[in-house]
Amino acid sequence: MVNTTSSFWTGKKVIVTGGAGFLGSYVVEKLQQRGCKDVFIHRSREYDLRNLSAIVSLFEETHPDIVIHLAAQVGGIGANREKPGEFFYNNLIMGIQLMEQARLFTVKKFVAIGTICAYPKYTPVPFKEENLWNGYPEETNAPYGLAKKMLLVQSQAYRQQYGFNSIYLLPVNLYGPGDNFEPTSSHVMPALIKKCVDAVENGDDEIVCWGDGSPTREFLYVEDAAEGILLAAERYSKSEPVNLGAGFEISIKNLVNLIASQTGFKGRIIWDDTKPNGQPRRLLDTSKADKEFGFKASVNFEQGIRNTIDWYINRRKEG
């Protein structure tokens, strides 16, 4: 998993926005393993990227060579439905202003992280990068998906007009130790793990899950995602988008059964079909990432889930 041989990062100053977050903490750790000694971990309480003056201050104080933009306001279907305006504005304004200031401060490379939510609702499976514009995203998270998609437009426009070196990556649903298990904002994997673990601890004989269980999702272990991002930063310098995924899909129903088995939950699983399913299927074509910068996911899915469950249970014991 660890690529410590790269000299790409030697002597470079790197900002990782959202570097203290779930994905960011893994990216920072891998940068340090690669010998990058000057990593600035951006935190929103110190520099609110929605404010232009904060971004200018950040660049004036750090003078980065590379920016890896991971900071985002994210959440599951419920959070996206509750705050579509917030998700649109905050993600759009952070990304647009950050890339513009990176250009003005002559940053050598800008790594923009998009989202699978940018794809059209009925994208042919597996999702290929060239299908990105062939329809409107799934309604429940379209404002978020489109806000992040504008970074791709900006990246391509800036390369065309200014020769600005930026890349745009599209990761699937991430999971792993350190994920967000807060019920109001978590994604599907931690939400289901929490339901099952809580039910076992409380002696509940049933859990309720959203939708009918038919949608499929693809999941990428967070450490794999971090590796993919750094390989792209090292080896890829085009503005065409690139998928980051694991190359498999699993139905939500089968996912729940797998998590129930690994957590020891033996009760009933009730499906609340008054709640939305979200996008019908998600599965990425990951061949471009392999071809362009040699990335392939390596962590076994069941082992990844086991690691995530163990982390969550241990954290509860500690807290």
Protein described:
This protein is α/β, with parallel strands linked by helices and 319 residues long. The chain is 43% helix and 15% strand. The strands form four sheets. A six-stranded parallel β-sheet has the order 2-1-3-4-5-10, sandwiched between helices. Strands 6-9 form a two-stranded parallel sheet. The protein has a two-stranded parallel sheet with strand order 7-12. The protein is globular. It starts with 12 loop residues before the first strand and ends with a helix. The mean pLDDT is 93.
Can you tag this structure with a few keywords?
single chain, 319 residues, six-stranded parallel sheet, two-stranded parallel sheet, 12 strands
Order of helices and strands: EHEHEHHEHEEHEEEHEEHEHH
How much of the polypeptide forms β-strand, as a percent range?
Answer: 5-15%
**Unreliable parts:** none
- Order of adjacent strands in the largest pleated sheet: 2-1-3-4-5-10
- Name the shape in a single word: globular
Q: What is the helical fraction, as a range of percent?
A: 40-55%
> Given the helix and strand composition, which structural class is it?
alpha/beta
Number of strands: 12
Number of helices: 10
**Biggest sheet details:** 6 strands, parallel
Roughly what is the average pLDDT, rounded to an integer?
Answer: 93
* End-to-end C-alpha gap: 30 Å
Radius of gyration using CA atoms only: 19 Å
Oligomer: single chain
